[in-house]
Amino acid sequence: MFRAGDPCRNFYLIESGSVRVDLMNSEGKSILLYRIGANETCVLTTSCLLSHESYSAEAVTESDVTALVIPANEFQARIASSEQFREIVFRSFSSRLTRLMAKVDEVSFASLNSRLAKRLLELAGKRDFVETTHERLAQDLGSAREVIGRKLTDWEKQGLIARHRGSIDILSRPALTVLCGQRD
């Protein structure tokens, strides 16, 4: 949808589908900032439209996406003239910013074991398996693929998980839940 350095030309309200927003460093390493789903907006887009600055991250669709697209000039006019539109935009902005700050806290203070266990459980939902790769987990957690691989190897030896190409079986949900509470 956009890349770092792109000008912000539209406001998006996602109606269906999923968009992934990543921050990338100069070496090409990325970290997941957040995902945008149905009835959500992008805090970065809102910020860029309000400040008239370019994007500092990139957004990629993870599935087919349907979105309401409002051009920047119309967004500015609606912000100025519609209290209801302003309320919708700022409520969404505030909610997303609060979740983004929680992510910063998690990345800064929670152990990688905790973050990895939490991510596996999130991806699994009620299922006993996760369809993902070491690379995707590393991007989601702001780590290196090799580090994630070592952690997963340790957990496999402990009987917590079983790894397969492109998927991970969760063998001990209670043990992963305990790991979620670890702090640095």
What labels describe this entry?
single chain; 184 residues; alpha+beta; 7 helices; elongated
- Helix-strand topology string: EEEEHEEHHHEHHEEH
> Largest sheet at a glance?
3 strands, antiparallel
Chain-averaged pLDDT: 90
Strand order of the largest sheet: 4-1-6
Low-pLDDT parts are: none
Overall radius of gyration: 19 Å
Number of helical segments?
7
Characterization of the model:
With 184 residues, this protein is α+β, with helices and mostly antiparallel strands. 48% of the residues lie in helices and 23% in strands. It has helices at 43-51, 72-81, 83-109, 112-124, 134-141, 145-157, 173-180, and strands at 10-16, 19-24, 30-36, 40-41, 58-61, 66-71, 129-131, 161-164, 167-170. It has a 3-stranded antiparallel beta sheet. Helix 2 crosses helix 3 (83-109), helix 4 (112-124) packs across helix 7 and helix 5 packs across helix 6. The mean pLDDT is 90.
List the helices and strands and how they pair.
Elements: E1 10-16, E2 19-24, E3 30-36, E4 40-41, H1 43-51, E5 58-61, E6 66-71, H2 72-81, H3 83-109, H4 112-124, E7 129-131, H5 134-141, H6 145-157, E8 161-164, E9 167-170, H7 173-180
Antiparallel strand pairs: 1-4, 1-6, 2-3, 2-5, 7-9, 8-9
Helix pairs in contact: 2-3, 4-7, 5-6
Quick structural summary:
The protein is of the alpha+beta class.
